[in-house]
Specification:
With 319 residues, this protein is of the alpha+beta class. It folds into two domains: 166 residues, Ribosomal Protein S5, domain 2, CATH 3.30.230.10; 142 residues, GHMP kinase, C-terminal domain (Alpha-Beta Plaits, 2-Layer Sandwich), CATH 3.30.70.890. Helices cover 38% and strands 25% of the residues. The protein contains eight helices and 13 strands. The strands form three sheets. Strands 1, 4, 5, 6, 7, 8 and 9 form a seven-stranded mixed β-sheet that branches. The chain has a four-stranded antiparallel β-sheet with strand order 11-12-10-13. The chain has a two-stranded antiparallel sheet with strand order 2-3. A hairpin with a 2-residue loop joins strand 8 and strand 9. The protein starts with a strand and ends with a strand. Bound molecules: ligand DP6. The site of ligand DP6 has 16 residues, from helix 4.
Length: 319
């Protein structure tokens, strides 16, 4: 039996819109969510490759997962069959672990495909007697399974452009993160479908350039300690992604009334305190908040006075 773990990641510059083999139409930048991870196990079995894990994946998701395993097996002409299991975990503040929901905008496809890729390469190493390939190669193979998974190989910050994802050094390299869960049910439109639909939006014109400009400005802001600028750029960026969704044909979106309410509370918080978190969203209704290490009191103040206890919140502190 082989096992591997890989973390989730949250993009501040979003991967939205893709070409063949999950090559992104624009650059993206992500922060690794080390405490949200997927563990994948592979066991030899007879007859055929199959998903036997307990995660409530729909048949399409299971098929995608199995196909990715087959893709890697083919590289090595491996004729063995595997039973795949996976489980999403979250390390809680007290060090114990719980689960996190899949398909709810926590990029669990990133952590699960990255873990499946790592695990399959390990199995190939043992069974076929081949060396485990370098992380760059593993990342690019993982991208074929699910684009955003190629970023989960590089922590804490990853820059992904075209076929290459790589670690990037940024001065602010440790953050506290919260995920405010508005709805933990699987989304109706998968991110893969969203990538296809957004190509119908007129706003795709200029998207590449907007992402490049924001990347440049965001890196400068984070490296120069200009937190408020960073927040503004990230705010523009996730609204840009939401605008792509809403201007597609047919239009779609993930925001719910409670999502908007939380985002407005975040804005009010900044206006009233002159400081606050970076907010961002994925293809889902939930809101991610990122804080600097020196903002712990501010963060407690926010949760006590602004977003009151109606939501569950998955938090990741630095141990
Ligand atoms: C909205 O990586 O899930 O989370 O390549 O089709 O598997 P596929 O898509 P996926 O897309 C993630 C999109 C996003 C933004 C991001 O993570 O950059």
């Amino acid at each position: 039996m082989w096992t591997a773990k890989a973390p989730a990641n949250i993009a501040l510059i979003k991967y939205m819109g893709k070409k063949a083999h999950n090559i992104p139409r624009n650059v993206s930048l992500s922060y690794t969510l080390d405490k949200f991870y997927t563990e994948v196990s592979l066991e030899l079995t007879s007859q055929c490759d199959k998903y036997v894990g307990k995660e409530p994946l729909n048949p399409e998701a299971k098929k995608r997962f199995v196909n990715h395993l087959k893709y890697i097996k083919k590289i090595y002409n491996c004729e063995d069959f595997f039973a795949i299991s996976s489980a999403n975990h979250q390390i809680l503040e007290d060090g114990s672990s719980g689960n996190f929901p899949h398909s709810a905008g926590i990029a669990s496809s990133a952590s699960s495909f990255a873990a499946l890729t790592m695990c399959t390469f390990e199995a190939m190493g043992d069974l076929m007697g081949v060396p485990i390939p370098p992380v760059e190669f593993q990342s690019s193979v993982s991208r074929i399974g699910s684009g955003s998974s190629c970023r989960s190989f590089f922590s804490p910050w990853c820059l992904w452009r075209d076929k290459k994802a790589e670690k990037i050094s940024i001065k602010i390299d440790k953050l506290l993160t919260d995920l405010i869960i508005v709805d933990d049910q699987p989304k109706k439109i998968s991110s893969s479908k969203a990538h296809a639909l957004v190509s119908s939006s007129l706003l795709m014109d200029g998207r590449e350039k907007r992402a490049e400009i924001r990347l440049k400005n965001l890196l400068a802001a984070l490296n120069n300690g200009q937190w408020e600028n960073a927040r503004q750029i990230c705010w523009e960026e996730f609204w840009d992604m939401n605008a792509l969704f809403e201007t597609s044909f047919p239009s779609f979106g993930y925001t719910q009334p409670e999502t908007i309410r939380i985002l407005m509370e975040v804005r009010k918080f900044w206006q009233q305190n002159g400081d606050g978190p970076i907010a961002t969203m994925d293809a889902g209704p939930n809101v991610h908040l990122l804080w600097q290490l020196g903002q712990t009191d501010l963060r407690s103040f926010f949760f006590r006075n602004y977003v009151l206890g109606n939501f569950s919140c998955l938090s990741q502190s630095i141990a």
